[in-house]
Design a protein that fits this description.
The protein is mainly α. It is built from 15 helices and 8 strands.
């Protein structure tokens, strides 16, 4: 940590004290000086020098020496004070002091005292003023540790060494969920400036006017300097996704069926939601790309669920699949109109680099993996094996359990089954 600029501080104290001590003398001599100025025209310079010599004799050498001694003593005391450790809360390994944007010196002193650091606010303010630290202090969270002096604290603030914080954007989250995460996490590290903005206003602010927000923010763990704003986070995370998409688009495979980077973003969001095991991403992508080339409906449940919004209660029904809507990929051909989540880098890579296959169908096995099929007949057999049969067994066991309970027989342990 840089040391306190002692020479600059002592000189500043001496100057401040000298101003205070010499002010009465200056006031006493001002009339004489004004008179001298008014009559100085035509007066020989030798006569003016003689007048200043008289003033110097009036002050006297002992008085000057005494004044210098007093000022030196005051400066020494101030130097000792600023280089003595301040008191921290007992057993605290560190104390974080949060400096808000545009905070005054007194507000910073109050923040330090409210955090438990026992500083002398007036002396602290003088230190900020004399070192010029107020001109370089950045907003953010500063970590102070026991043993630090006033000088160390001022130097820490002057250095701008704010603490960083981590923000994790989950893979496959929706923009709505991501925005909620940002709003809940605001506090010491960043402030909310976009809380009342609409989705359209946020996209305008990040430099993408008129664009749908879904999909445009890259899932990743980010590290930011404290003292920023939520809008700065949105801008940085948007730029990361846009840059990543453009780079990957340049290296896309000839097997990729999408025509634009935005279509790739949409496809990647479908892959993100349909993949239970990372190793299956390439095959899931191959199914969607094969279907797009064959002009077959994608028939992906997550897109239908996204289109239902708050109407979805956790169970997708046949009625949902038969209800027209822009995100119903059972009734509509091609891709949905926008991404349905924030796709990860792995899903973007899978969308643009699909595995070569002849698969057109897949079904979840119930253990996080998928069964891939080349024909509808093969797919129907897989659906029977991995979904319908386990669902019938589960319903039969549940019905038998209810009958036992109704007959008064002891209830056995419930058995888990596959989802219907």
């Amino acid at each position: 940590m840089p040391r306190f600029p002692r020479t600059r501080f002592i000189c500043g104290v001496l100057l401040d004290c000298a101003k205070e001590r010499l002010r009465p003398v200056a006031e006493h001599l001002r009339p004489a000086a004004e008179q001298m100025e008014s009559v100085s025209n035509g007066v020989p310079r030798r006569r003016i020098r003689q007048c200043f010599c008289v003033v110097r004799r009036l002050m006297g050498l002992p008085a000057i020496v005494g004044l210098v001694g007093v000022l030196a003593a005051l400066a020494g005391s101030a130097w000792w004070y600023f280089n003595s450790p301040v008191r921290f809360p007992a057993d605290a390994p560190y104390v974080d002091v949060v400096v808000t944007p545009g905070a005054s010196g007194r507000a910073i002193a109050n923040a330090a005292m409210n955090a438990g650091i026992e500083i002398y606010d007036e002396g602290f303010l003088m230190g900020l003023r004399l070192t010029g630290a107020m001109n370089s202090i950045h907003a953010g969270r500063y970590r102070m540790v026991p043993g630090m002096t006033h000088a160390d604290i001022v130097a820490k603030l002057e250095s701008g060494e704010v603490e960083s914080f981590a923000l994790r954007v989950p893979d496959g989250a929706t923009f709505r969920q991501f925005r909620m995460l940002v709003q809940v996490g605001a506090g010491q590290d960043y402030s909310l400036t976009a809380a009342d903005m609409t989705e359209e206003q946020i996209m305008d602010a990040v430099g993408a006017p008129g664009m749908h927000a879904e999909g445009w923010f890259a899932p990743e763990t980010y590290h930011f300097r404290s003292g920023t704003t939520d809008l700065d986070l949105y801008r940085a995370i948007f730029r990361e996704q846009k840059s990543l998409l453009n780079r990957l688009w340049q290296d896309r495979s000839p097997l990729c069926a999408v025509k634009t980077p935005y279509e790739a973003l949409i496809l990647a969001s479908l892959i993100e939601k349909e993949t239970g095991r990372p190793e299956d991403r390439g095959l899931v992508s191959s199914v969607f790309n094969n279907r797009l080339r064959a002009r077959m409906p994608l028939q992906t449940d997550p897109s239908v669920i996204y289109g239902l919004g708050d109407q979805f209660d956790g169970k997708l029904t046949k009625k949902h699949l038969q209800t027209p809507g822009p995100y119903n990929t059972y009734l509509n051909g091609g891709l949905p109109p926008s991404p349905i989540c924030l796709p990860s880098r792995a899903s973007l890579e899978a969308a643009l680099q699909p595995v070569k296959s002849h698969f057109y169908y897949f079904v979840a096995r119930g253990d996080g993996t998928s069964q891939f099929s080349k024909s509808l007949q093969e797919h129907n057999r897989a659906v029977e094996k991995y979904q319908k049969r386990p669902a019938r067994i589960a319903r039969a066991k549940a019905l038998a359990q209810k009958r036992k309970e109704a007959a008064g027989q002891p209830a056995g342990p419930r058995q888990s089954g596959g989802q219907p």
